[in-house]
């Protein structure tokens, strides 16, 4: 019989490996709802964009930004959200599995806790869950390229989905709609939407540009200039639906990626 008391804890711990994220790089934690195609069906999300479902995602992201100090910016579309942690963050000594798991579990808890605030008349039929991953980006330029990629995806998906659901509403089956759109270019989709009487540029900004949730560091109040200059930044988290591909956004918010 094995005597468990003789096994050294240090020996057992040496099997763990701590994957540390590269120092001095922007950390992006991207979470994504698992099987939300089904989840959105079962919970009767409005297609192609359920505004309340997006508001719920934004509200959970806002809670993440408030809870984890090192989150400097976040960007969400559909069932996904990307959280950017500051370059020199020492959160969990930059251990990937801890960071990913706390962000994912906190977000998921929030999603279920806040469900009834956003869907008061709709029962949460089964527990939603999210996956998460960590990626490091070595410069703010590449980080901005990453965010731009997500925003381009938002636009492409939204344009496709808006066409798809218009075709379905007009009487096509889902597979007919899919075949109809196969190989169409952006211009073709724009024309199709015009035929349906939809001006794409007039759709809500949140649907077209996604949501950016971040701490507005604009109002830094110097409490007392004489006494060792105590600065008290007002922690106001805001949600905006803006173009983050254009440099003008980053010029207007220089504190985010400083
Ligand atoms: P996976 O588990 O691989 O992520 P998934 O079913 O979640 O699979 P995604 O590619 O993540 O697939 O896409 C999410 C899907 O969830 C969308 O295709 C859409 O059908 C649905 N969805 C998410 N958010 C909304 C929303 N606000 N309104 C309507 N539908 C939504
Ligand atoms: P960390 O975030 O580092 O894990 P922690 O506060 O969660 O910090 P742990 O070492 O994980 O600390 O210990 C969990 C603590 O939670 C215990 O010390 C105990 O105080 C409390 N706790 C957990 N489960 C129970 C329980 N079933 N009954 C009473 N207290 C509990
Ligand atoms: Mg996924
Ligand atoms: Mg998903
Ligand atoms: Mg997704
Ligand atoms: Mg614990």
UniProtKB/TrEMBL annotation:
<feature type="domain" description="Thg1 C-terminal">
    <location>
        <begin position="142"/>
        <end position="245"/>
    </location>
</feature>
<comment type="function">
    <text>Adds a GMP to the 5'-end of tRNA(His) after transcription and RNase P cleavage.</text>
</comment>
<comment type="similarity">
    <text>Belongs to the tRNA(His) guanylyltransferase family.</text>
</comment>
<feature type="domain" description="tRNAHis guanylyltransferase catalytic">
    <location>
        <begin position="12"/>
        <end position="138"/>
    </location>
</feature>
<protein>
    <recommendedName>
        <fullName>tRNA(His) guanylyltransferase</fullName>
    </recommendedName>
</protein>
């Amino acid at each position: 019989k094995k005597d468990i008391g003789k096994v050294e804890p240090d020996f057992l711990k040496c099997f763990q490996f701590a994957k540390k994220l590269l120092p001095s790089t922007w950390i992006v934690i991207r979470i994504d709802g698992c099987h939300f195609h089904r989840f959105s069906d079962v919970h009767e999300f409005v297609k192609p964009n359920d505004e309340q479902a997006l508001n719920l995602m934004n509200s959970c992201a806002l809670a993440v930004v408030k809870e984890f100090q090192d989150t400097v910016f976040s960007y969400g579309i559909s069932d996904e959200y990307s959280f950017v942690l500051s370059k020199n963050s020492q959160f969990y000594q930059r251990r990937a599995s801890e960071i990913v798991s706390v962000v994912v579990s906190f977000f998921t808890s929030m999603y279920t806790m806040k469900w009834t605030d956003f869907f008061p008349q709709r029962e949460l039929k089964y527990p939603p869950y999210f996956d998460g991953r960590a990626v490091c980006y070595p410069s703010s330029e590449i980080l901005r390229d990453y965010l731009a990629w997500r925003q381009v995806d938002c636009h492409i998906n939204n344009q496709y989905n808006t066409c798809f659901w218009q075709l379905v509403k007009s009487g096509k089956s889902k597979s007919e709609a899919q075949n109809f759109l196969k190989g169409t270019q952006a211009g073709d989709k724009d024309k199709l939407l015009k035929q349906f009487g939809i001006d794409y540029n007039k759709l809500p900004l949140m649907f077209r540009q996604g949501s950016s949730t971040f701490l507005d560091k604009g109002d830094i109040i110097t409490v007392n200039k004489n006494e060792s200059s105590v600065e008290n930044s007002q922690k106001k988290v805001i949600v905006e639906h803006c173009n983050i591909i254009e440099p003008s956004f980053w010029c207007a918010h220089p504190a985010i990626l400083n």
